[in-house]
Amino acid sequence: MTPPFAIATFPSVIANEVKQSMSAQLHGLPRSTHSAQRRANPGATEHTRGAALLSAMLTVALVATLAAASLWQQWRSVEVESAERLRVQSLWVLIGAQDWARLILREDGRNGGADHLAEPWAVPLAEARLSTFLAADKGAAMDSETLTQTFLSGQITDLHARLNVRNLIEGGKVSLLGWQAFEKLFEKLQLPLAELNLLTENLRFALDTSAENGSTKFAPLMPRRASQLGWLGLSNATLAVLSPYITLLPEATKVNLNTADAMVLYASIPTLDLAQAQRLVSVRQLSHFRTVADAASALGLTVSQMGASDVSSSYFEVHGRLRQDQTVVEQVSVVQRNGSEVKTLWRDAGPQWQPGKPLK
Question: pTM of the full predicted structure?
Answer without folding.
Answer: 0.72
